[in-house]
Amino acid sequence: MERISTHQFMTLGAAVLMGTTFLPVASIATGAGGRDGWMSVLPGFAMVIPYSLMVLSLLAQYPNKNLLQISEALLGKWIGKCIGVIYISITGYFGGLLLSQCGDIYERSIMPLTPLWLFYLGGLLLVFYTVSSGVEVFARFSEIVFPMIVIALVLNIGLSIPRMEQGELLPILSEGLKPIFSGAFKIMPFAMEYILFLAGILTFLPNSKKELAQLKNGVWRAVFLVGILDMLVVLIQILVFGPEEVNRLVYGLLVLGKIVEISRTVSGVESLFMGVWLGASVVKISAFFFTVTWGLETVFGFKGVKWNLAVCAVFLGIAFGFVRGHSLFVEITLVDDYLILPFASVWIPILWGVSRWKKGAGVQ
Amino acid sequence: MKRNGCRVGLVLILITGLLFITGCWGKREVEELAPLISIGFDLGQKPNTYLVTGQYALPNKGAAGAEVKDWTMSFEASSLREAYEMTYKILNRTPFNGSVKVIVIGEDMAKAGFKDMLDFTQRFSEFRRTIYLVLTKGKAQDVLNVKLRNGEMPAMSIKNHLEQGDELSSFPTVRLGHYLTILGRKSTAPIMPLVKSIKSGDGGIEYKAEGKDGAEEIQLEGAGVFRGDRLVDLLTDEETKGYMWLENNVVHRFINTVGLEESKVNFSAHVLKSTTKYKVADTNGKIELQYQIKASVAVEEVLGQNEQLSETEWVELMKGAEKSFAKVIEKECELSIQKEKQLNLDFLGVGRHIEERNSAYWKTVKDQWAEKIADFPVSVNVEVTVHHSGMSNNSVINSTSERQE
Amino acid sequence: MRSWLKMIKELTIRPKGERQIRKSPSYSFDEDMKKPLSGIKVKEILGSSSDVVFREFFIEGKERIPCLLAAVDGMVDKNQLDQFILKPLMVDLAGHSEVTQLTLANVVDRTLQSILPGLEFKKITKMEEAINAILSGDAVIFFGDTTEALVFGARGWPSRGVAEPITESIVKGPREGFSETLRTNTSLLRRKIKHPSLRIISLKLGNLTNTDLVVTYIDKVASPDIVAEVFRRLGTIKMDSMLGNGYIEEMIEDNPYSPFPQIAFTERPDVLAGKLLEGKVGIIVDGTPIVLVVPAIMTQFLNVNEDYYQRAMVAVLSRFVRYLGAFVAMLAPSIYIAVTTFHQEIIPTDLLMSISVGRQGVPLPALLEALTMTVVLEILQEAGLRLPKPIGQTIGIVGALIIGDAAVKAGLVTPLMVIMIGLTAVASYAIPTFDLGLAVRIIRFPFMVLAGFLGFFGVSVGLYVVTIHLLSLRSFGVPYLSPIAPLRIRALLQDTFVRAPWWALKRRPQLIDVEEPRSGKKG
User: Are residues C29 and C131 in contact, defined by beta-carbon separation less than 8 angstroms?
Assistant: First the structure.
């Protein structure tokens, strides 16, 4: 049985939580929160903490089981299976959309003439290789990629400082607190994607008492790390572009990469940054690939390379269904807001509640 | 163990297979590219057309290494992409937009509005948001076609000039990104530096012209003020300088006090450092914007000083100089503020400053801001510090006999 | 036509019996080995080899005992035989007090106990032992038809002395290196670690070659799991020949398909000692100065022992240079290709112009140009490697200077490409380990192809594939990218990219799960 350490859980969680959120986050946060949108990022991400803690407390109660198995145990076989099917379809669909996004960002920003399917295949190849190497390798991969993402983001942010406009952040809170709440509500689905992954990775987590505490710690750290980084990303974009422009740009960070200039000669380093963003994208898609395979294994008992290839095919199919970049963007937002957010925010509390109730009633 | 190896092999075969299925995707060899350095926009002859001028730098193998040939051409087209299409038909290389440095906007075009032309440059990924925007008196085509006497390409010359703008701080440096951000602020009016080609004899500048009547130098002076994407008016050199002070854009400057007052002794100085702060003062409900400029200068010329001064006298003189410089700066700023009120156009960003500092008040005036600019009180307070007066204190004076006259 | 086919068949397919013998030539040999020990039989088996010498003589004791001394000429020290065997038995014995009691039954024990003065005498009773001893360079004395014999360790053959190793030259530090003789090597190691917990365990491998090898580790420092795994893997090796470290290396490495070296090697006793003290296991093979060290991790191939002799600050700088060099050696050509064919926006405009001018009239596209140049580089390297030193230099001059310069002048390649390839070559010499250098040379090619077709996207995909591959590699159970992923923060900060000063290195590295403090006390 593969196991990942608590530290790996932290970086893996952070990498999955982060994923490629740093690309659209600014446009979404400022779209809802305007000039103060940056303040809504951290609360939005922090919303995931109670959910994660609920999931981890379920882990303590049912060690070595993933959330789908726990659902079957708690809610009965058929309801559990139903949940499993929903889980698989949501994560599978979303994974395919993310693959499509990976191609979209490349085609849009640096390689407009290269066929889209190459990006899909390249990305999928990496995802497939990661997934077939197993969770341990995936965890180590995130240990390498996540620091790279952080460094690239910090570099990108740091190098854009000379392009900052005066006083774009001011006035602070001129519209009151309302924009922050609506922004946070828009950010929350990002965090909920992580919960779906957490639901599956449970089986691979250590579950002694001491390590559980460390896992909880890991959740806190991951959420704050990612929240703060994403907040900085939004902040710098508002500072450089102004809220109106951030809202108008599709992937503000890519534009930010384009305006980086090092001593007025070296510019156009966005293609280097893109390499790192590809890694982030691979981590995120792999996470959803994993959730699908776990789901298939738990619900139907499907397992092995054959099914992995089938999932690949489905991902590719979904990606090819969304070659229109603009509708892809809308679709991702829709899935985030109307599938992932409601599903995760209903499923987890119910499970947790039922387990508490059963424990209290002494049924178990 | 073995399966892992197979997997690596499989992956490698997959990759190579993938690569050799078809040819090269979106690949362009460097020598096939024609780096575009600058684009100029003018209005076309026919209605709804534009005259797009592209300035390319075509590298060629010369006798002694690299030689860059200037290849400038204008196309009358209804969209920017159409102009590119026409270029493709003539030029045997692919235009490469990643190297665009400057966009030059002709006066007519600026008056008619250039939003549509700019759309391509802010949308297409090859263009950078760091491209400089300049306005030109007359046609952009003419500026880009100037044969400079030093052989440089006009666009490169403008770009290099703009990049050294901090040395003089007498014209604003506007990049595409900055312009778009200003547009996004809504209340502020964009501004752009003004480029003009000059002939020998224009504005007190003379040189030995090689051609007969063509302009052979390019000058950056003044600026143009826009309402959105439409040119409203041009600022004079002094008004632009005032704008630079108020915007806290002055890094280094040369200033002199000649013509300021009746005083016999005049100074010129090098501004070493300058900061402008502003605050929105609320005195009994009367809102006022107050600028506070602090500049440090080094006196570099003392004109009309005919007497040997003692050390204390020199100190007094320099104190006087500080006041004179402050007056000069104040005058420039006042001119700029007057212009703003006269045009009813907030290119100084006064409204934005109010919003930043007093957003509650701003909400009440936001909608009628265009009418309110003219009456809104703005004050400027300048403080100048003379750091030193160079390597000598006293001036060189003529012989004593002359002094006695 | 038919006869032609038949001929090929005859040539390619050998008769069955012959093949069997080829497959297992030791077949008849094994029979002999199982026979009872006797001098006559040994003479029968080995007598046909001209290099084995036999000396027959008699001991005049209580009864006349026939003796037979057997040894391989050139492998024993003849002086020692004369002095410690022949002289005591033939000359000194006459005056010895025990001479009158010697019989065929007790001669072996008596001579061993009180007559033969040498240090390395051993009694043996098996045929196999006798034969092996003779062939390994020892001398064996047989007494009449008794089934016991005495082995005298008098090995002495011409061997290379302890010299400075060629592959790992060093500026500041010890200069001795291992040689081909196993005993010399173990003694060199023992001189570095004078502690009873240093284990040196002998094995023999190779059915025909009977190669001696030694597994060495420090008890309680090396993880018992890893030691056990080393013995398990060595035990599974079934080979006729074992002529060098490379044989073992390929037999015991974890992933034979990986281009990356998974077993480290060294020629230096100080390096081996250092690795053993970190908890690793060394395998010393007789006949080669190269010692294998397992488990190996990626970063170890980029660190050299000199780092520990230099001051920490210098070591950090030179490590940084080495890591940078490895990166450049792997990626420089592919980055050049990607930048010039896909991402021209990254090139400053002035440089773009000069590259463009340089490329005008060059017939090959950038990818092919780079590939050709790299292949030429490889040919030059390979050509220079095995030539005698004076000629090797000529290759360098002819290849680099004349061909390169002429190619540029003739417009076949761009000057910038020559610079790029030169840079790559120089950078690859900054990789201290030969094996890793080879790996980098191999994967450079796929990277160039990827860059040529897909630009930086291709390069990133390639990099991630390599990363995932490295992450899934293990060397004797230790993850290959160990201190980085899985992260061991202490090992990473102390001795991976940087080297902390010795006073800060209180604990042993964590990668092999031993948590004992380095100094022996809880630090």
Answer: no
